[in-house]
Amino acid sequence: MKRKKGWLPVFLLPAVALFLLIYAVPLVIVFVSSLFDYRLTGDSMTFIGLQNYTQLFSDATFRQACGHTIVWILIHCIIHVSIGVILALVLYKKPRGWKFVRTAYMIPNIISNAAMGMIFLNIFNPQYGVVNSILKAVGLENLTNNWLMDTTTAFPSVTMTWLLFAGYTTTLVLAEALTIDDSVLEAARVDGATSFQTDMFVVLPLLRKIIGTTMVMAATYMLQMFDLIYITTKGGPGSATMNLPLMLYSVYKNENNYGYSNAIGVCIVIAGVVCMTLINKAMRVNEEDY
Question: How many beta carbons lie within 10 A of that of residue 17, not counting itself?
Fold first, then answer.
C-alpha cells in the first residue's frame, strides 16, 4: 500500500502544474496588479495601494453593474434553474416523444452566444423584428418599441435572450433523476403518495445536490456573461444593461487602465466564491445523505 501511495504525487504533478500555470499564477497577478496604476502607455507601474478599490466603490457605473449582475444571478439561479428542473421532472415521466424533446431543447444551448446575440438583434429589431411584427399583426402597434435601445425595456429584453434556454440544467437533472432506484418510488406509491407528492417529497430531495450544482453553474455563468450582452446592447443604452465583465472590458479597452480593470476582476472572483459558498451551504451540496 505504501508503494502505491508513493506514486500519487507523480500522477498529481501534471494537474497541479497546469493549475498553477493556468489559474493560480494569473489570479495572483490580477490581485497584485490591482494595487498599481498600470497602463500600457505608461513607463512603469506605480503602487497606489487600495486607491483603485476606493475609486471603484464610489463609481456609480460600478454600483449599477453590480446591481444588474446580482439581479441576473438571482434570476438565473431561481427562475432559469426552476424551468430546467420542472422540464426535467416532466421528461422523467417519459411521456411520448420525451427523447426528442430532450434533444430539441438542447439546441439553443449548443448555439454560440455570438450567434444567439445576432438572432435576438433581429427578433427585437424595431423595423422588421418578430416581436414588433406580431404586435402590429394583432392590432397592438402602439406597444411596438425599440426594445434593446429603450432604457425601460433593454434589461428585460436582454434577460429573455437566455432565460428560457435551460437545456444543460434539464439534461443534468434528468440524468440524475434517471439513476433513482425504482424501489424508492415504489415504496412511496405503496405508502399512498400521489405522483405530485412523490416528486415533491421523494424525487426533489434526492436531486438536491445536482440542483445545487446547476445553481452554482448558473451563478458563475452570469458572472462571466459578456459576449451576448456586448453584441445586443454593449451595456447600453447608457449603462442600463451594464454588468461587471462588460465594465471590466470597457475600462481596459477605452481607458487603458489595467490596474482599475483588474480591481473589477478581483471583485468578480470574490463574488464567484461568495455565490458558490452560499449556494453550497443553502443546498447542502457537500453534506452526505444518510
Answer: 10
